Amino acid sequence: MKISTRGRYALRVMVDLAEHNNGLFIPLKDIVAREDISQKYLEGIMTDLSKAGLVDGQHGKGGGYRLNRAPEEYAVGEILRITEGDLAPIACLGKEADVCERAQECKTLPMWKKLYEMINNFFDSVSIADLTSNEGGGNDYVI
Q1: Is the entire prediction scored with pTM above 0.85?
Q2: Mean pLDDT for the stretch of residues 88-102
Q3: Which of 5, 14, 48, 73 is the most buried (most CB within 10 A)?
């Protein structure tokens, strides 16, 4: 499993929104400047996050994006599943995978299932708030 730039940038944006969370909409250009991410690329990510209900967006003067929950309520796993689609380490465990005809005799499948469970449990145990408290080595999560 490899997390794409889309997933990594989505996490960076959510951390940025959490760190600048004052209840007001944060202009996309401000996020772009702080995070050094292409505005066009970021627009697509923000559309996905907004459609999924993770952020509120507003167009026009005074517009931008803001979190609609407390940073503690956003699990990294939730964000990655929106941007990556699935966190399965192998194709046969993916959400849209066909049933593998070898599943019954596959000696490695239990190992892959356990890894998949560990990946999901880990990413679901880390919140955006955990990532914002990373200043000065405050925790073990680095993005």
Answers
A1: yes
A2: 81
A3: 14
